[in-house]
């Protein structure tokens, strides 16, 4: 019924907000599926383990990109589409824009090139709304440092310049898809962030309702 993705650099706080939003929407009577990428089901979680393992530092950028997309295909077909068909709200912690920002832009494979691959593999499945949790890479790094080193995955451990490039990549995507991607100020308090997120969700629900009435 409604597909919302959460995007941002590592340490932007999106996962915490996704969990709180799930509870809020559930209390309003919605069936809510909170899931994440890479992962969300058994096969995709196995792919996640390969991609994020610190042992695999020699992974080729294309191998990395195709594994993320492979995990996404499994996730879309096994979980996301069935949930949307049942009328659920799907909250997905990262989706196709992560591949565009991390592999397309920061790894240099090209946003356009990966758009083409993703549209071949995923067809027209895309979020109704994407929330970008905006925080400067240096501030996000500070939050990440509060985590224990052994909780960090291969991507978390990338150099600061990589995370800065990812942030730049997201700015490109935001300017190209301003109708779908909404920017949330992630430096604000949790309550303020939740309020901003709820505003964008109401906006998209009203729009979708309007489209339905026009049919
Ligand atoms: P997470 O830490 O948000 O669970 O995401 C795992 C890491 O994988 C994170 O550093 C972002 C990265 N990532 C990509 O590089 N490309 C993708 O397509 C996805 C979904 C995640």
UniProtKB/TrEMBL annotation:
One of its GO terms (molecular function) is dTMP kinase activity. Keywords: ATP-binding, Kinase, Nucleotide biosynthesis, Nucleotide-binding, Transferase. ATP binds at residues 8-15. It is an enzyme of class 2 (transferase). CDD domains: TMPK (cd01672). The keyword Cytoplasm does not apply. It comes from the Bacteria. It catalyses: dTMP + ATP = dTDP + ADP. Its EC number is 2.7.4.9. Residues 6-196 form the Thymidylate kinase-like domain. One of its GO terms (cellular component) is cytosol. GO terms for biological process: dTDP biosynthetic process; dTTP biosynthetic process; dUDP biosynthetic process. InterPro entries: P-loop_NTPase, Thymidylate_kin-like_dom, Thymidylate_kin_CS, Thymidylate_kinase. Belongs to the thymidylate kinase family. Phosphorylation of dTMP to form dTDP in both de novo and salvage pathways of dTTP synthesis. This is Thymidylate kinase. It comes from Spiroplasma mirum ATCC 29335. The gene is tmk.
């Amino acid at each position: 019924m409604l597909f919302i993705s959460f995007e941002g650099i590592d340490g932007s706080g999106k996962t915490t907000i996704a969990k709180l939003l799930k509870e809020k929407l559930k209390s309003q009577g919605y069936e809510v599926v909170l899931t994440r990428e890479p992962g969300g089901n058994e096969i995709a979680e196995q792919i996640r383990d390969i991609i994020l393992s610190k042992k695999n530092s020699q992974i080729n950028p294309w191998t990395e990109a195709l594994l993320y997309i492979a995990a996404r295909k499994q996730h879309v077909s096994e979980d996301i589409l069935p949930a949307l068909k049942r009328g659920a709200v799907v909250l997905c912690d990262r989706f196709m824009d992560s591949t565009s920002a991390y592999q397309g832009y920061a790894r240099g494979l090209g946003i356009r090139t990966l758009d083409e691959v993703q549209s071949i593999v995923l067809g027209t499945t895309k979020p109704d709304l994407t929330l970008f949790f905006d925080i400067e890479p240096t501030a996000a790094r500070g939050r990440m440092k509060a985590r224990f080193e052994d909780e960090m995955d291969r991507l978390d451990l990338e150099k600061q310049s990589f995370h800065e490039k990812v942030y730049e990549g997201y700015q490109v995507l935001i300017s190209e898809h301003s109708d779908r991607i909404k920017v949330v100020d992630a430096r604000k308090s949790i309550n303020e962030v939740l309020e901003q997120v709820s505003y964008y969700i109401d906006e998209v629900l009203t729009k979708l309702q309007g489209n339905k009435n026009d049919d």
